[in-house]
Write a sequence for this structure.
């Protein structure tokens, strides 16, 4: 009888411990419904997507919108893959274009990069990702069409699309955006994770307010693309768009800082 009671007691003690261990290794999932409910009550046209190695979520994620400066992340990858660049050390001229284009979002630098790489290499990159709804505007690159699904797919693999010798430099640029442009994801990056991102905001008018990001922690990765269009036509609309970005990212990524497993 005593042996039976001891056995039963051990079972009761071990079951909660086993359950706790299982919870600790349960793969993270985004707070998707919370983010969708929030987005539905915000102004403008909103679409967003989240991807991991195994997860693929989308809310109006195939709705195309003008890309604005989000295009510059594609331009960066295309430049570093140019036949005259990919196999050599970057020089001061390269860095004088790429650094301001990404960290300060210089349109002048982006104009020069686009002229150098050409439309063909931008389209080739889109096919490689693949981006199914990307349409390049060769006259005004900022009016090229993108959607959130394609951009999340692109950001999930952006480092792998860059030649290895240039990879660390490119990711450094994407994680060192100038302080005045560190809104949205940079305000709510989960603890322990690093954000590599590019935004597009239509000169602060509320025409668009986008942000695309790759979050990394060790070998774990999560990509998110949040796109907004026609929020308004003022600086106040741009401020509203930045708050929407922050709100969506904060809800989507809830619990990521404590997650042990991200598949």
């Amino acid at each position: 009888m005593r042996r039976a009671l001891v056995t039963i007691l051990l079972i009761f003690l071990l079951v909660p411990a086993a359950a706790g261990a299982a919870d600790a290794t349960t793969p993270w999932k985004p707070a998707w419904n919370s983010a969708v409910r929030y987005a539905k009550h915000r102004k403008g046209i909103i679409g967003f997507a989240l991807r991991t190695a195994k997860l693929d979520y989308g809310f109006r994620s195939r709705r195309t919108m003008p890309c604005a400066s989000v295009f510059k992340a594609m331009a960066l990858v295309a430049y570093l893959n140019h036949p005259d660049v990919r196999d050599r050390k970057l020089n001061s001229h390269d860095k004088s274009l790429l650094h301001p284009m990404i960290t300060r979002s210089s349109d002048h630098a982006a104009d020069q990069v686009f002229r150098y790489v050409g439309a063909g290499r931008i389209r080739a990159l889109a096919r490689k990702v693949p981006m199914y709804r990307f349409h390049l505007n060769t006259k005004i690159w900022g009016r090229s069409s993108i959607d959130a699904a394609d951009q999340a797919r692109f950001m999930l693999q952006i480092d792998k699309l860059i030649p290895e010798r240039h990879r660390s430099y490119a990711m450094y640029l994407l994680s060192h955006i100038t302080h005045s442009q560190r809104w949205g994801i940079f305000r709510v990056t989960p603890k322990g994770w690093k954000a590599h991102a590019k935004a597009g905001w239509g000169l602060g008018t509320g025409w668009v307010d986008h942000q695309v990001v790759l979050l990394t922690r060790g070998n774990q990765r999560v990509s998110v693309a949040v796109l907004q269009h026609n929020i308004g036509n003022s600086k106040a609309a741009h401020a509203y768009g930045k708050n929407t970005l922050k709100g969506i990212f904060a809800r989507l990524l809830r619990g990521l800082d404590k997650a042990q497993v991200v598949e």
